[in-house]
Amino acid sequence: MLPVALRGRLPLPERRRRLRTWRRTRPFWGGLLLVLGGVELLLVPLSPLAVLVSLGPGGIAAIGIGVALIVAGLFLWFLPQSRSYVSIHALLLSVLSFVATNLGGFLVGMLLGIAGGALAFGWTPDSGARDGDDAPQDGAREWAGEGGGPRAMAAALPVALLAALATGAPAEGRAEAASSVTGAPVVARTPPTVTTSLFAPRGFALAGVTEVHTVDGPRRVLVLKMAAASLSDYRLRTRDGGEEYGLAARSLELRGDVTLYLTRFSGCIEGLLCVTFSPDGLPAPPVIPPFVFMTRVSAEQALVTSDVIVTDGLRLEAS
After folding, report:
1. How many C-beta atoms surround the C-beta of residue 74 within 10 A?
2. Model-level pTM?
3. What whole-number distance in Å separates Cα of residue 84 and Cα of residue 256?
4. Helix, strand, coil: what percent of the chain each, to 5?
5. End-to-end CA distance of the chain, in Å?
6. Does residue 222 carry a pLDDT above 60?
7. pLDDT tens digits, one per residue of 82-112
8. CA–CA gap between residue 217 and residue 184 (Å, rounded)
């Protein structure tokens, strides 16, 4: 808040008053930090630091996440009603940038994104805000009836996400329980291919990397565990032999103690950032935050176990 004497000397008082009113009816500073974080993530892979940064998977992911954070900041400015949804997804993308990009733009872009998402999540409209004689316009009060915002949750959410990311044990160590597959069934020599238009897990976590038995010897696989998962437009195709068989279903629900053993897993996180995970490739974070879904998923599935499997429109196909 500027002193009265200085405020009277500045030019364009009416425009500054309108700008103040506009700024106070939306999470302006949270959006600004998200835009700055996105710009920083974009600049790192495009910078001349060729020795430190290569425009490989990390650089491409940085461009995708950077653009998404900039768009999220603009949404906070021009559609403040969607701030809760946008800020949570911005937080998830910011944390994801640490493993998917060049260390989150050497931490700068990641921290800006986390701070901006937390500020936007904790912000609430205040119909009683004043700056001297300035008052918010009537249109700004139409949706300003929420009372105090979840500011403590806004501070705790990024801390919890970072703690889950930092304290997760190495993948090899966490796979000890899964690696002791003595007596486990022998899986196909060539894992079948599974595709789905939407993969929505609940309680999703990377359990590590282990080995499963095939007729040609052990094969390394990613182990993904979850409480449940929903798949739309499910398709499975075998590739282990002359005849090709397949399963198809409009939807497939996995419930209970669900474990997936995959040699490759690719898809688009939130429908935006397309990545591919493998036992020897791009690592997945140890704990996947909630609310995450993937589209255009394709996986090489060595084995799946689940307490309950529910399908709709299941049919068997053969070549």
Report:
1. 15
2. 0.46
3. 30
4. 40, 30, 30
5. 73
6. yes
7. 888 888 889 888 888 887 776 777 788 889 9
8. 13
